[in-house]
């Protein structure tokens, strides 16, 4: 990517563009503003400008970076099993 194209990326998104950027549905993103959860994890921050909802690209990127990542499905399954076992111990 050239420096010029990097400078042309938007610094903020509306609901529709943020949902596309993050790979979630617009309705899921809207609902997350009410529930505080998006895809079962803490939702990202948003701002209001009058009636407009604005998501900063940096907040979208931070939320995506904080999602669990896995090398393969075996690793994902092992982590999921550990989390369920820990929840059952409480």
Description:
A hairpin with a 2-residue loop joins strand 4 (47-49) and strand 5. The protein contains five helices and five strands. The protein has one domain. Helix content is 56%, strand content 16%. It has helices at 3-7, 15-22, 26-35, 57-66, 73-89, and strands at residues 12-13, 37-38, 41-42, 47-49, 52-56. It has a three-stranded antiparallel β-sheet with strand order 1-5-4. The mean pLDDT is 89. Helix 2 (15-22) packs across helix 3 (26-35).
Structure in a nutshell:
This protein has 90 residues and is α+β, with helices and mostly antiparallel strands. It is built from 5 helices and 5 strands; from the N terminus they run αβααββββαα. β2 and β3 (41-42) form a beta hairpin.
Question: Which structural traits does this protein have?
Answer:
90 residues, alpha+beta, 3-stranded antiparallel β-sheet, two-stranded antiparallel sheet, 5 strands, 56% helix, 16% strand, elongated
Beta-strand portion reads 15-25%
Q: Please summarize the sheet with the most strands.
A: 3 strands, antiparallel
Q: What integer value in Å does the Rg equal?
A: 16 Å
In helices, the fraction of residues equals: 55-70%
Low-pLDDT residue intervals, each spanning 5 or more residues? none
Q: Would you tell me the structural class of the helices and strands?
A: alpha+beta
Number of helices: 5
Determine the N-to-C terminus distance.
Answer: 48 Å
Q: State the shape.
A: elongated
Widest sheet: strand ordering: 1-5-4
Question: Helix and strand string, N-terminal first?
Answer: HEHHEEEEHH
Number of domains: 1
Number of strands: 5
């Amino acid at each position: 990517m050239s420096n010029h194209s990097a400078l042309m990326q938007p610094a903020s998104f509306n609901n529709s563009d943020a949902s596309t950027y993050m790979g979630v549905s617009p309705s899921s993103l809207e609902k997350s503003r009410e529930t505080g959860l998006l895809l079962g994890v803490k939702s990202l921050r948003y701002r209001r400008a009058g009636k407009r909802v604005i998501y900063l690209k940096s907040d979208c990127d931070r939320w995506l970076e904080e999602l669990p990542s896995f090398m393969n499905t075996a690793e994902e399954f092992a982590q999921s099993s550990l989390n369920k076992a820990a929840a059952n111990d409480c």
